[in-house]
Design brief:
Layout lengths: L28 E3 L5 E3 L6 H4 L9 E4 L8 E5 L1 E3 L2 E3 L2 E3 L2 E5 L4 E5 L2 E2 L6 E9 L6 E9 L7 E10 L3 E10 L1 E2 L7 E7 L11 E10 L16 E2 L6 E4 L8 E8 L4 E5 L7 E2 L6 E9 L2 E9 L1
Parallel strand pairs: 17-24
Antiparallel strand pairs: 1-2, 3-4, 4-17, 5-6, 7-16, 8-9, 10-16, 11-14, 11-17, 12-13, 12-16, 13-15, 18-19, 19-22, 20-21, 20-23, 23-24
Length: 296
C-alpha cells in the first residue's frame, strides 16, 4: 500500500538520489553567495528568502550549542505577506513566493533501520505556536510517489530555556529496507506559523537496537555485529566506508575510550576492553549513529 506521510500544506515528498556531506552537530557552515551561512549537508529556505527586497534569513548559525561550538537556530519570520518558519531538511526545498506553495523532495541514500531519532533542543514559542520534528524513510519502487517504510514525528509547544534531550521512536509500516532518509525540523506550526518562534537544534543522532545473545543479526537493523563479542566487531557493510568521518567507542558513562577512522574493513579490535557494555558511535551522513554492544 502506498502511504505518503506529509506535513500539511507544506511538505510533499518525492524521490531523488544523493549523498550528503557529514555535519553531525552543525559544526560546518558555508557562506552562500547572498551572504548568509547555511549548514553543510542541510537545505534551508535562506537561498530563496535572503534576496532583494525580502532579505530574511530564517536558518542561522548560533554559538548557543549543546555539542561543539555551534548549533542551528530556526526562527519564524514575516516574509512579504506571510510567515515563513525556519527549518532544515536533508531533502530539496522549493517555494513559489507568489502562490506560497512549497515542497520538500528527496533525501539522502540510507539502508538501515534505526529504532530512535535523538537530539537536543531549545524552544521559545510565540503564543499558540509549536515546533515539529519529523523523520521519513522511503523506498523507491519506480513510481512517482515512493513507499513510506518508517516515520517518526514529534510536536512540542512547551518553552525550553535549556537544552533538552528528545527521543522519538520510529514506527515501521512494512518490512522493506529503506533507501531514502529525510529529517526535518521546523520552528512553527506548518499550517499557521507564528512570527517570532525560535527553535535551536543540536546533535542529531540515530540509535540502533542492542543485539541479542545470538551472533546472528537482522542486517538492516544493526549498526555493528556481533554482540556479545569477545575480540572483533564489524561495521554493517550497508555503510559506505568512504563516507565515514569518525568512529568512537565509549564506556557506559560516556567517556571516550577509542577513536578510529574508516580503515576498518578487517573489523574493530575490542580485546583490550574489560567485560561489560559499551557504546559505539559512527559519525557520517549528517547524523551520529549509535549502538550499545556487549564485550564478553
Amino acid at each position: 500500500m502506498k502511504n505518503l506521510l506529509f506535513l500539511p500544506l507544506i511538505f510533499v515528498y518525492g524521490f531523488i538520489s544523493g549523498q550528503a556531506i557529514p555535519n553531525n552537530s552543525f559544526e560546518e557552515w558555508y557562506q552562500h553567495s547572498a551572504g548568509h551561512l547555511d549548514p553543510v549537508g542541510w537545505n534551508t529556505a535562506n537561498p530563496t528568502t535572503n534576496v532583494y527586497p525580502i532579505n530574511k534569513v530564517t536558518t542561522e548559525r548560533t554559538d548557543d550549542a549543546y555539542d561543539g561550538n555551534f548549533a542551528v537556530k530556526l526562527t519564524s519570520k514575516t516574509v512579504l505577506t506571510f510567515v515563513a518558519p525556519g527549518f532544515i531538511t536533508l531533502g530539496d526545498f522549493n517555494i513559489n513566493l507568489f502562490t506560497q506553495q512549497t515542497s520538500i523532495t528527496g533525501g539522502i541514500n540510507f539502508y538501515l533501520k534505526p529504532e530512535k531519532l535523538k537530539l537536543y533542543y531549545k524552544y521559545t514559542p510565540s503564543q499558540g505556536d509549536f515546533f515539529r520534528i519529523g523523520l521519513w524513510m522511503l523506498r523507491n519502487d519506480g513510481t512517482q510517489i515512493p513507499d513510506t517504510v518508517a516515520t517518526a514525528l514529534y510536536e512540542g509547544s512547551e518553552p525550553k530555556n535549556s537544552f533538552t534531550p528528545l527521543e522519538i521512536e520510529l514506527v515501521y509500516r512494512n518490512d522493506f529496507t529503506p533507501e531514502i532518509l529525510n529529517i526535518i525540523a521546523v520552528s512553527s506550526n506548518p499550517d499557521a506559523p507564528v512570527a517570532g518562534s525560535v527553535l535551536i537544534v543540536d546533535k542529531i543522532e540515530l540509535e540502533y537496537s542492542t543485539l541479542s545473545q545470538s551472533t546472528t543479526y537482522d542486517k538492516p537493523r544493526s549498526l555493528i555485529f556481533p554482540s556479545p563479542a569477545s575480540d572483533i566487531i564489524y561495521l554493517n557493510d550497508l555503510f559506505d566506508y568512504d563516507s565515514i568521518d569518525l568512529i568512537k567507542i565509549f564506556d557506559i558513562q560516556g567517556k571516550t575510550l577509542f577513536e578510529f577512522d574508516n580503515n576498518i574493513e578487517n573489523g574493530i579490535d575490542i580485546n583490550s576492553l574489560q567485560k561489560g557494555t559499551y557504546v559505539i558511535k559512527v559519525y557520517t551522513s549528517n547524523i551520529i549513529h549509535s549502538q550499545k554492544f556487549i564485550k564478553l
